[in-house]
Amino acid sequence: MHFNSLLIFKKYAVPHFEGATKVLEIGAAGFPSEYAKCVSTQGIAWHTLDIGSDFNNFSHQNPLHLMSPHEYHYPIADNTFDIVLAGNVIEHVKEIWTWMNELARITKPGGKVIIICPVSWVFHEAPVDCWRIYPDGMRALMTHAGLEILVSEFETLEPPYLPKYFPVLPGISTLPPWGKVSSVLKLKGIYNLILSKIPVLRKFVIPITVAYDTIGIGQKR
After folding, report:
1. Are residues 191 and 111 in the same domain?
2. Does the pLDDT at position 26 exceed 90?
3. Any long-range contacts for 46-55 (C-beta under 8 Å, 24+ apart)?
4. Could you tell me if 182 and 126 lie in one domain?
């Protein structure tokens, strides 16, 4: 989980949880997840799901946790959830078109599928890393699954939380998930401030990387 992922979730996804009573989060990596902490979950049955072995089985934390033996077919009835959420998961799914169809299947008519993809992050196996998806690709996947596109955006919301005097580059998030600037980062900002005042030294200013993510929200007709 990284800071920009939470920021765009709060900006675009949180309003869609109003009125939801049954949610499935895929690949939550613990419970409550960082996404769940952003939502007023009172009155929501927040289910979680992971694929494969007991390595990711945290049913002791969440009695609504499910384990699926199959990557593309879950032991869940059609039209079950108001919201199906997968953040930082889609890049690890080999057949994303098949997977998106499965998410649509288990979503109720009028319900929503919410996907976040960490586009600027470096290769990271878990156990595979297959995709980086931009808004055009997200729209294509969701449309193919019969979903109406509500949101398809690609952006970073991290720069306002950074110290001044940092040129930014796409990459991994420098800030922790809670967004607090470290003392080391503050010192680098002071270093950059000094160099920026001296024209011949400006080329030595230290850049900082920020995360860019795509978020897609599709509604089942």
Report:
1. no
2. yes
3. 47/22, 47/23, 47/81, 48/24, 49/24, 49/25, 49/74, 50/26
4. no
Q: What is the pLDDT of residues 81-97, one digit of tens each?
A: 999 999 999 999 999 99
Structural domain boundaries enclosing 36: 3-155+212-220
Tell me the CA distances in angstroms from 138 to 31, 39, 148, 163, 182, one per residue in order. Answer: 27, 24, 11, 32, 34
pLDDT of residue 57: 60
Mention every residue, 6+ apart, whose C-beta is less than 8 A from residue 203: none
Whether 102 and 187 share a structural domain: no
- 88 and 176 assigned to the same domain: no
- Which residues make beta-bridge pairs with 110? none
Whole-angstrom Cα Rg for the chain? 19
Residue indicated by tokens 């978020």: 215
The stretch 48-57 carries a mean pLDDT of 73
List, in sequence order, every residue forming a beta bridge with 48; answer none if it has no partner.
25, 65
Long-range contacts of 43-51 (CB under 8 A, 24+ apart): 44/17, 44/20, 45/21, 47/22, 47/23, 47/81, 48/24, 49/24, 49/25, 49/74, 50/26
Same domain membership, residue 135 and residue 71: yes
Return the bridge partners of 22, or none: 45
- Read off the DSSP letter of residue 13: I
Please name which of 149, 131, 58 lies closest in space to residue 95, comparing C-alpha atoms. Answer: 131
